[in-house]
Amino acid sequence: VVSENIEGTNLLVQINDLKAALKDRDERMMAIEAELAKFKELSESKLKEIERLKRDLKESQCINVQNEEVINELKETILSLEDNEDTLNEVIEVTENDLASLKELSETRLQEIEQLKLKLGYNNTQEKVVWSQNSVQLTSPSVDQCIEVISELEEEHESITLKDSSSDSTQFLMPIILERGTIKGITIYSSLLSRADILSFSSQLSTNKSLTTLVLTTGSIGNNGVMALAESLQYNKTLEYLYLSYNYDLTITSVSAESLAEFLLVNTTLSCLYLDHTGMTTDGVMILMESLKTNNTLEELWLDEKHKKICTTLPYYDHIKDKLYFL
């Protein structure tokens, strides 16, 4: 019996030892599992870091490739520009040589022209002042040239033409030639006459007894000039023909039509008035039409074709139609 108790006791001891060993093993297993969990978590983090590094590396490689492509393109562009620069330098050199040759040729031609001028007796006065049997034409004259022309005018010189004249020359020349009382025709073109220019010879124009034709054309007068001119001519007793045609840019309009109408109501000598190819408006034409109802001396009024239709609708058209001409 004692022997069996001893064996039972030993067996219990072994069982307890085995339980203790199993408990110890379980604790170690739990510790290992905890370590494994930590290691797994760390491994996953490292794997993510590795993946990120791989992506960064790939992107970096792509950027490097792109940069390399850009660098290669820039190299090609630089080479192309260098080639173009060489070509351009060659062209510039050829052009400079051509220009030098042309300059030399031009200088030679100028010398030849000057020699021809000397042979032909060419001078500036001959170019700017042209005399004929009964007229003289001045082109861009200076005041000194105007003085010279006045000194050489004779009785047979009845017509003067002034082209591209300055205000100074016009204001100097016009009063003197109007006072002479021998000039019958004055033509001024491409010489803008301001109100001040007209007023400078207004009194001489008003009292002149020789002038029958006055032509102010091709950009020579505008509204302000026309108004001053109409006032100056109201009591002139000799002027028969007044040409104000072809003054497009300066637009003779209804602004000056009132002054022209008043002039026509008073003047008794003007027979022809030319207002074609101007900026005269319909309103201006209607004002002039009213003055024709009482003017008995004007025989011809020339207007732009565009005004014909409106004029024919006037109730007194039959009374004035023989005076109207349209271009």
From TrEMBL:
SUPFAM superfamilies xrefs: RNI-like
SMART domains: LRR_RI
Coiled coil region boundaries: 15-105
Gene3D superfamilies xref list: Ribonuclease Inhibitor
Cell division among keywords: no
InterPro entries: LRR-containing, LRR_dom_sf
Top-level taxon: Eukaryota
Keywords: Coiled coil
The protein's name in its UniProt record: Uncharacterized protein
Organism placement in taxonomy: Eukaryota, Metazoa, Porifera, Demospongiae, Heteroscleromorpha
